[in-house]
Amino acid sequence: MADPLDALTGKQRAIIKQLGDLETALENGMAGALPKVFATLSRDVQRIAANLSLDPNDRAKTLRELIGMKRKIGDLVVNNPTYKEEVKKLLNEFSTIKNLTDQYIQTTIDDFVPTRRLYDAILQSNIAITKDALLGGGIVDNFGNAIQEVLKSNIAGVSDRAQLMETLRRFIEGTPERKAYLDRYIKQTTNDAVMVFNREYLQTISEDLGLKHYLYQGTIIGDTRQFCQSRAGKFFTKEEVEKWVSLDWDGKMAGTNSTTIFSYAGGYNCRHKLWPISEEQYNRGKGIVAQKPTPPPVVAPPPSIPPQMTAPPVLPKPPKVATMESLTAEMNDIITKKLGLKVESITHDPSISVERMQIRVNQLNKLADTYKIGNNVDKNSPIKFSMKSGGGSFGFVSHELFEAEKKIVINEVNFGHKFDTDRIKGNITKSLYKPKSTIFNGSTSELSQAEQKLILEKLEVSTMTHEFAHLITKSQTTFLGDNQAFDFWSDIKRINTKYKTQIKKDFLSASPSEKGKILDNYLGDYAQTNLNEFWAEAFAEFNLNENPGKWALEVKKIADKYFKK
Length: 565
Prior knowledge:
7 strands, alpha/beta, four-stranded mixed beta sheet
């Protein structure tokens, strides 16, 4: 067959082309806008950095100013009008992608009607994840940290301000030899968001309809990986696709398993999809003549036991094996019975295995046994619970404030499925098992396999534990006449003030050999964000670290006073 698409109908081919053209237009639109975006960013960053002192004697003061301006610099990205407009265009077209995909499935299954709430939920979830990846904290921190490091690295040895500004410009806007810092991140995030959404949507419907045959089709580009080249334009069964996960290839996405392979395909920046097709189309494409299935053999019923024989003993039933369904049901019971909250839905990222889900259920059960939900939370409003980290957000708790009714309605709790490796394995943060200075100094060789396994299990639930702290307390601004909430946050603020003063004093006065010890009490850079994050990071430390630091233990006393059952 000259063209594998000949196995499909004319309508199917037309829709595939429409979707391909739309995806290309979205990528090109974003790529075309980036030079203008980067030029504006460059001017704005230079304006903010223009007053930094280049005097070596002012270095301590300059470093403090850099810390203060990091967030302001990061916000320049998400507040850039040209960039925001391109992201808006991208998100608006997700509905078009969904509608075209529905039309494609209708050409494959005559009576398909896309009415399930799940399909709309997938659309809205992917819009939210993409918006967060392109406009959320991830890109803000990414850009803010990068510019901060450029300034820190260059400001000490530069006396010419024009030279410093040129260094910033080249880093932000790029050069003929080197692309702009954010170029790859934005382009790849745009492509992956569109492609993963379309693949996930296709596969969800395929599973619902029991479709088990696919065409691997997409665009071959200059750097197409061998994995895709060898499969493009070929036909596969579901079982064959699921076996791909045992292979290793460049660009393979973390978390690729027999379920997510249909969403992730060839991995990062992959432009191919597994298009569901009918078995007839599969046979036509493979050049196989469909054969009438052989009826199953007739099996004789087992002989009855004669009256004179004794029936075999009844053996005890094997222990019940946990499944995703049973663990989800268990999590539902914990939330409703122990926390007293209503559940609208519980969803999770496909990469979470049964074993990893069990770890999450165990941790949630432990936390729910220990702590209660704060006052003013409306316990009659159903909440969406999820475990799916977005591009720039590992987890979150979203709520609405109703001042007249003096209540807080929690809309969604995302416990995430990833943890922040930069905050964990990076400098001056927690090991969650050994003292932080041990990890900081690179001395991990003495950890036994059992200790390493325990660390990984605690990292697995670090995001969940952090978000649980937000769940039981919400925000320091939502008192609504609740004296307990006011008193709690007053106590936390008192501890936070002492913490910041002491850490700064100790760290600035310490010798290099003493800094590691100070890090054992440091709660990490993210705890510096605001009072809410200080609370949540401390909560995570004293619940997960076998040796919590001094300030985490101080916060634990406050948590136990107000929220312990």
